[in-house]
Protein backbone atom coordinates (compact mmCIF):
# COMPACT_ATOMS: atom_id res chain seq x y z
CA UNK A 1 0.00 0.00 0.00
CA UNK A 2 1.38 3.39 -0.83
CA UNK A 3 1.25 6.13 1.72
CA UNK A 4 -0.58 9.33 0.96
CA UNK A 5 0.27 12.99 0.85
CA UNK A 6 -2.21 15.69 1.78
CA UNK A 7 -3.22 16.25 -1.83
CA UNK A 8 -4.46 12.72 -2.36
CA UNK A 9 -7.96 11.48 -1.63
CA UNK A 10 -8.71 8.46 0.52
CA UNK A 11 -10.64 6.64 -2.20
CA UNK A 12 -7.76 7.01 -4.66
CA UNK A 13 -5.19 5.55 -2.32
CA UNK A 14 -7.32 2.71 -1.01
CA UNK A 15 -8.52 1.82 -4.47
CA UNK A 16 -4.99 1.80 -5.88
CA UNK A 17 -3.57 -0.08 -2.95
CA UNK A 18 -6.34 -2.50 -2.20
CA UNK A 19 -8.34 -2.95 -5.35
CA UNK A 20 -5.08 -3.01 -7.27
CA UNK A 21 -3.57 -4.93 -4.43
CA UNK A 22 -3.99 -6.94 -7.34
CA UNK A 23 -6.31 -6.08 -5.04
CA UNK A 24 -5.40 -9.48 -4.89
CA UNK A 25 -8.82 -10.09 -6.31
CA UNK A 26 -9.99 -11.11 -9.73
CA UNK A 27 -13.28 -9.58 -10.82
CA UNK A 28 -16.10 -12.03 -10.22
CA UNK A 29 -15.64 -14.95 -7.90
CA UNK A 30 -16.77 -18.12 -6.32
CA UNK A 31 -19.42 -18.42 -3.68
CA UNK A 32 -19.61 -21.06 -0.99
CA UNK A 33 -18.55 -24.40 -2.33
CA UNK A 34 -16.75 -22.92 -5.34
CA UNK A 35 -19.66 -21.87 -7.53
CA UNK A 36 -21.78 -18.78 -8.06
CA UNK A 37 -25.09 -18.80 -6.25
CA UNK A 38 -28.05 -17.82 -8.39
CA UNK A 39 -25.88 -16.96 -11.37
CA UNK A 40 -28.99 -16.30 -13.43
CA UNK A 41 -29.59 -16.53 -17.16
CA UNK A 42 -26.95 -16.51 -19.86
CA UNK A 43 -28.06 -12.96 -20.68
CA UNK A 44 -27.34 -11.89 -17.09
CA UNK A 45 -23.95 -13.59 -17.16
CA UNK A 46 -23.10 -11.77 -20.38
CA UNK A 47 -24.12 -8.47 -18.79
CA UNK A 48 -21.90 -9.27 -15.81
CA UNK A 49 -18.95 -9.99 -18.11
CA UNK A 50 -19.35 -6.63 -19.85
CA UNK A 51 -19.69 -4.95 -16.44
CA UNK A 52 -16.55 -6.76 -15.24
CA UNK A 53 -14.68 -5.39 -18.26
CA UNK A 54 -15.89 -1.86 -17.56
CA UNK A 55 -14.84 -2.20 -13.92
CA UNK A 56 -11.44 -3.49 -15.00
CA UNK A 57 -10.71 -0.42 -17.13
CA UNK A 58 -11.96 2.02 -14.51
CA UNK A 59 -15.31 2.94 -16.08
CA UNK A 60 -17.09 2.62 -12.75
CA UNK A 61 -20.25 4.49 -13.75
CA UNK A 62 -20.87 2.19 -16.71
CA UNK A 63 -19.99 -0.85 -14.60
CA UNK A 64 -22.51 0.18 -11.96
CA UNK A 65 -25.20 0.69 -14.60
CA UNK A 66 -24.62 -2.79 -16.00
CA UNK A 67 -24.46 -4.48 -12.61
CA UNK A 68 -27.71 -2.74 -11.67
CA UNK A 69 -29.28 -4.30 -14.75
CA UNK A 70 -27.85 -7.70 -13.81
CA UNK A 71 -29.20 -7.68 -10.24
CA UNK A 72 -32.59 -6.49 -11.48
CA UNK A 73 -32.72 -9.52 -13.78
CA UNK A 74 -31.10 -12.02 -11.41
CA UNK A 75 -31.38 -10.79 -7.82
CA UNK A 76 -29.75 -13.97 -6.49
CA UNK A 77 -26.53 -13.49 -8.43
CA UNK A 78 -23.75 -13.07 -5.88
CA UNK A 79 -21.30 -11.98 -8.56
CA UNK A 80 -23.61 -9.21 -9.74
CA UNK A 81 -24.13 -7.84 -6.22
CA UNK A 82 -20.40 -8.11 -5.54
CA UNK A 83 -19.53 -6.25 -8.72
CA UNK A 84 -22.13 -3.60 -7.97
CA UNK A 85 -20.63 -3.09 -4.52
CA UNK A 86 -17.18 -2.68 -6.02
CA UNK A 87 -18.40 -0.20 -8.62
CA UNK A 88 -20.25 1.89 -6.05
CA UNK A 89 -17.29 1.80 -3.69
CA UNK A 90 -14.92 2.94 -6.44
CA UNK A 91 -17.04 6.04 -7.00
CA UNK A 92 -17.31 6.84 -3.29
CA UNK A 93 -20.96 5.77 -2.96
CA UNK A 94 -20.22 3.94 0.25
CA UNK A 95 -23.76 3.47 1.55
CA UNK A 96 -24.91 1.98 -1.73
CA UNK A 97 -21.78 -0.16 -1.84
CA UNK A 98 -22.44 -1.44 1.68
CA UNK A 99 -26.03 -2.30 0.77
CA UNK A 100 -24.99 -4.17 -2.38
CA UNK A 101 -22.31 -6.14 -0.55
CA UNK A 102 -24.71 -6.88 2.31
CA UNK A 103 -27.08 -8.38 -0.27
CA UNK A 104 -24.24 -10.55 -1.58
CA UNK A 105 -23.28 -11.62 1.94
CA UNK A 106 -26.87 -12.55 2.74
CA UNK A 107 -26.87 -14.88 -0.27
CA UNK A 108 -23.42 -16.32 0.50
CA UNK A 109 -22.33 -15.67 4.10
CA UNK A 110 -19.02 -17.54 3.72
CA UNK A 111 -18.02 -16.09 0.36
CA UNK A 112 -14.48 -14.85 0.96
CA UNK A 113 -14.51 -12.39 -1.93
CA UNK A 114 -17.57 -10.69 -0.47
CA UNK A 115 -16.07 -10.63 3.03
CA UNK A 116 -12.79 -9.21 1.74
CA UNK A 117 -14.58 -6.57 -0.30
CA UNK A 118 -16.54 -5.56 2.79
CA UNK A 119 -13.21 -5.21 4.57
CA UNK A 120 -11.82 -3.04 1.78
CA UNK A 121 -14.92 -0.88 1.88
CA UNK A 122 -14.51 -0.27 5.61
CA UNK A 123 -10.82 0.50 5.19
CA UNK A 124 -11.57 3.00 2.42
CA UNK A 125 -13.83 4.82 4.88
CA UNK A 126 -11.07 4.85 7.52
CA UNK A 127 -12.68 2.18 9.71
CA UNK A 128 -9.74 -0.21 10.18
CA UNK A 129 -11.24 -2.06 13.16
CA UNK A 130 -14.38 -2.92 11.20
CA UNK A 131 -12.22 -3.89 8.23
CA UNK A 132 -10.18 -6.18 10.43
CA UNK A 133 -13.32 -8.03 11.54
CA UNK A 134 -14.25 -8.80 7.93
CA UNK A 135 -10.72 -9.91 7.02
CA UNK A 136 -10.70 -12.25 10.01
CA UNK A 137 -14.04 -13.72 8.91
CA UNK A 138 -12.60 -14.38 5.47
CA UNK A 139 -9.49 -15.98 6.95
CA UNK A 140 -11.65 -18.20 9.16
CA UNK A 141 -13.03 -19.63 5.91
CA UNK A 142 -9.73 -19.69 4.02
CA UNK A 143 -6.58 -19.07 6.01
CA UNK A 144 -4.52 -18.79 2.81
CA UNK A 145 -6.60 -16.01 1.27
CA UNK A 146 -4.03 -13.54 -0.03
CA UNK A 147 -6.40 -10.58 -0.27
CA UNK A 148 -7.58 -11.07 3.30
CA UNK A 149 -4.03 -11.45 4.62
CA UNK A 150 -2.90 -8.33 2.77
CA UNK A 151 -5.89 -6.33 3.94
CA UNK A 152 -5.45 -7.49 7.52
CA UNK A 153 -1.83 -6.37 7.51
CA UNK A 154 -2.75 -2.94 6.18
CA UNK A 155 -5.57 -2.57 8.74
CA UNK A 156 -3.20 -3.44 11.57
CA UNK A 157 -0.61 -0.95 10.32
CA UNK A 158 -3.39 1.65 10.08
CA UNK A 159 -4.03 0.99 13.78
CA UNK A 160 -0.28 1.28 14.47
CA UNK A 161 -0.21 -2.37 15.55
CA UNK A 162 2.92 -2.87 13.48
CA UNK A 163 4.27 -5.95 15.24
CA UNK A 164 1.03 -7.81 14.60
CA UNK A 165 0.96 -6.53 11.02
CA UNK A 166 4.43 -7.85 10.36
CA UNK A 167 3.47 -11.26 11.72
CA UNK A 168 0.59 -11.32 9.24
CA UNK A 169 2.86 -10.27 6.37
CA UNK A 170 5.38 -12.96 7.31
CA UNK A 171 2.62 -15.55 7.37
CA UNK A 172 1.42 -14.39 3.96
CA UNK A 173 4.92 -14.21 2.48
CA UNK A 174 5.57 -17.80 3.57
CA UNK A 175 2.72 -18.69 1.21
CA UNK A 176 3.34 -16.04 -1.47
CA UNK A 177 7.05 -15.14 -1.24
CA UNK A 178 7.23 -13.09 -4.45
CA UNK A 179 3.96 -11.16 -4.13
CA UNK A 180 4.80 -7.49 -4.74
CA UNK A 181 1.99 -5.83 -2.73
CA UNK A 182 2.78 -8.00 0.30
CA UNK A 183 6.51 -7.24 0.06
CA UNK A 184 5.82 -3.53 -0.38
CA UNK A 185 3.43 -3.39 2.58
CA UNK A 186 5.87 -5.39 4.71
CA UNK A 187 8.65 -2.90 3.93
CA UNK A 188 6.40 0.07 4.75
CA UNK A 189 5.38 -1.59 8.01
CA UNK A 190 9.05 -1.76 9.03
CA UNK A 191 9.40 1.96 8.38
CA UNK A 192 6.30 2.83 10.39
CA UNK A 193 7.44 0.68 13.31
CA UNK A 194 10.76 2.54 13.56
CA UNK A 195 12.96 0.09 11.66
CA UNK A 196 13.64 2.52 8.83
CA UNK A 197 16.90 0.92 7.73
CA UNK A 198 15.32 -2.49 7.14
CA UNK A 199 12.32 -0.92 5.45
CA UNK A 200 14.49 1.04 3.03
CA UNK A 201 16.63 -2.04 2.33
CA UNK A 202 13.53 -3.99 1.31
CA UNK A 203 12.21 -1.08 -0.76
CA UNK A 204 15.51 -0.76 -2.63
CA UNK A 205 15.15 -4.38 -3.73
CA UNK A 206 11.58 -3.79 -4.88
CA UNK A 207 12.62 -0.66 -6.79
CA UNK A 208 14.35 -2.93 -9.29
CA UNK A 209 10.93 -3.77 -10.72
CA UNK A 210 10.38 -0.88 -13.17
CA UNK A 211 6.65 -1.56 -13.50
CA UNK A 212 6.04 -0.95 -9.80
CA UNK A 213 8.57 1.81 -9.21
CA UNK A 214 6.14 4.65 -8.50
CA UNK A 215 4.53 2.95 -5.50
CA UNK A 216 7.91 2.07 -4.01
CA UNK A 217 9.30 5.55 -4.60
CA UNK A 218 6.32 7.06 -2.77
CA UNK A 219 6.96 4.81 0.22
CA UNK A 220 10.70 5.48 0.12
CA UNK A 221 10.01 9.22 0.12
CA UNK A 222 8.08 8.78 3.35
CA UNK A 223 10.88 6.67 4.81
CA UNK A 224 13.49 9.27 3.95
CA UNK A 225 11.33 12.08 5.34
CA UNK A 226 10.81 10.24 8.63
CA UNK A 227 14.58 9.71 8.76
CA UNK A 228 15.19 13.44 8.33
CA UNK A 229 16.54 13.02 4.79
CA UNK A 230 14.26 15.56 3.16
CA UNK A 231 16.46 16.16 0.13
CA UNK A 232 16.42 12.43 -0.63
CA UNK A 233 12.66 12.35 -0.13
CA UNK A 234 12.25 15.24 -2.58
CA UNK A 235 14.48 13.54 -5.14
CA UNK A 236 12.51 10.31 -4.79
CA UNK A 237 9.24 12.09 -5.65
CA UNK A 238 10.67 14.17 -8.49
CA UNK A 239 9.38 13.05 -11.86
CA UNK A 240 6.31 11.40 -10.34
CA UNK A 241 4.79 14.37 -8.49
CA UNK A 242 4.37 18.04 -9.39
CA UNK A 243 6.69 20.43 -7.51
CA UNK A 244 3.86 22.14 -5.60
CA UNK A 245 2.52 18.77 -4.48
CA UNK A 246 6.00 17.69 -3.39
CA UNK A 247 6.21 20.77 -1.17
CA UNK A 248 2.78 20.06 0.36
CA UNK A 249 3.64 16.41 0.90
CA UNK A 250 6.96 17.19 2.58
CA UNK A 251 5.27 19.73 4.84
CA UNK A 252 2.78 17.05 5.85
CA UNK A 253 5.58 14.54 6.46
CA UNK A 254 7.33 17.03 8.74
CA UNK A 255 4.22 17.04 10.91
CA UNK A 256 4.14 13.24 10.96
CA UNK A 257 7.84 13.10 11.82
CA UNK A 258 7.25 15.11 15.00
CA UNK A 259 4.91 12.42 16.30
CA UNK A 260 7.20 9.71 14.96
CA UNK A 261 10.19 11.06 16.89
CA UNK A 262 8.02 11.43 19.98
CA UNK A 263 7.17 7.74 19.80
CA UNK A 264 3.51 8.38 19.01
CA UNK A 265 1.46 6.14 16.67
CA UNK A 266 1.43 7.47 13.11
CA UNK A 267 -0.40 4.76 11.17
CA UNK A 268 -3.64 6.72 11.04
CA UNK A 269 -1.75 9.80 9.79
CA UNK A 270 -0.14 7.90 6.94
CA UNK A 271 -3.19 5.99 5.74
CA UNK A 272 -5.94 8.50 6.41
What does this structure look like?
By secondary structure, the protein is mostly helical. The protein folds into 3 domains: 42-107, Alpha Horseshoe (Serine Threonine Protein Phosphatase 5, Tetratricopeptide repeat), CATH 1.25.40; 110-172, Tetratricopeptide repeat domain (Serine Threonine Protein Phosphatase 5, Tetratricopeptide repeat); 178-271. 70% of the residues lie in helices and 0% in strands. The protein contains 15 helices and no strands.
Summarize the structure.
This protein has 272 residues and is mainly alpha-helical. It has 15 helices and no strands.
Number of strands: 0
Report mean pLDDT, rounded to a whole number: 87
Number of helices: 15
* Biggest sheet architecture: none
Shape: globular
Q: Element order, helices and strands?
A: HHHHHHHHHHHHHHH
Based on helices, strands and strand pairing, what is the structural class? mainly alpha
Spatial extent as radius of gyration: 19 Å
Number of domains: 3
Q: Uncertain runs with pLDDT below 50, 5 residues or more?
A: 4-39
β-strand percent reads under 5%
List keywords for this structure.
272 residues; mainly alpha; Serine Threonine Protein Phosphatase 5, Tetratricopeptide repeat; 3 domains; 15 helices; globular
Amino acid sequence: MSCRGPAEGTSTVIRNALLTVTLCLAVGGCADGGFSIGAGSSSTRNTEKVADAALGVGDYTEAARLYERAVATSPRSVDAWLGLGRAYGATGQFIRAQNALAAAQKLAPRNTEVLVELGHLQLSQMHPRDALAYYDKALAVDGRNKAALTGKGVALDYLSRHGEAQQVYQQALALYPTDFPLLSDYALSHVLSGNIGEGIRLMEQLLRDPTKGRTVRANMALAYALDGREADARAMMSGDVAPDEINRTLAYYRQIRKDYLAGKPIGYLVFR
